[in-house]
Amino acid sequence: MNEQIHPQAPDHLPIFITAPGETDVLMVVMGIFLVAAVLWVGTLYWRLHSLPERMAHKSEKLQFEIVAILGLLSLFTHIHIFWVAGLLLAMIDLPDFGTPLRSIAGSVEKMAGTMRDTGAVAEHEARPSSTSLPAEAAEKSAGGAKEAIGSHV
Predict the structure, then answer these.
(1) Where are the domains of the chain?
(2) Whole-number Å distance between alpha carbons of 52 and 68
(3) Could you tell me which residues come within 8 angstroms of residue 13 by beta carbon, excluding any fewer than 6 positions away?
(4) Looking at residue 153, what DSSP letter applies?
């Protein structure tokens, strides 16, 4: 091969111009940088996209599942209002109405003398109770309760 420089080329060539048949180091470095940048931007995107879900999970919100579903919907449909709704829902504390209502329902069931039909209750009823009072003792305790109520009236 002829190693002569072209007559119209300048005397000093920049470092990024390589000779024919040699490895282009700048292209290899830029290729690695491009792959790293795409992975970094993708990771940043996923972290930002999962922000509402992480916020709801960290604060143990009741609406965590709803926030997670809104995040998935916004990811797959590209409708950004789902992400905004999930972010707002993750930031709001919804009051817990379920626990007090379950407590009230349990108290009303105790007062009414009925219990829910669960396996533990059916097992308890099938087993003979050694602590049950005889009929006479139950009548005496009921009579004593009537006398106590009558003396306070």
Answers:
(1) 25-91
(2) 8
(3) 5
(4) -
Euclidean distance between CA atoms 99 and 120, whole angstroms: 21
Q: Please, which residues have CB within 8 angstroms of residue 115's CB and are 6 or more apart in sequence?
A: 109, 121
Return d(Cα 101, Cα 134) in angstroms, integer.
Answer: 36
Identify the CA nearest to 86 among candidates 114, 121, 50: 50
pTM of this prediction? 0.48
56-59 long-range CB contacts below 8 Å, 24 or more apart?
56/89, 56/90, 59/90
Burial class (CB in 10 A: 0-12, 13-18, 19+), 101: exposed
pLDDT in tens, the chain (153 residues): 556 777 887 777 788 888 788 889 999 999 999 999 999 999 999 898 888 988 888 877 778 888 989 998 998 898 889 999 999 988 888 777 788 889 999 899 999 888 766 555 555 555 555 554 455 554 555 555 445 455 554
> Following DSSP, what letter does each residue of 58-83 receive, concatenated?
HTT-TTHHHHHHHHHHHHHH--HHHH
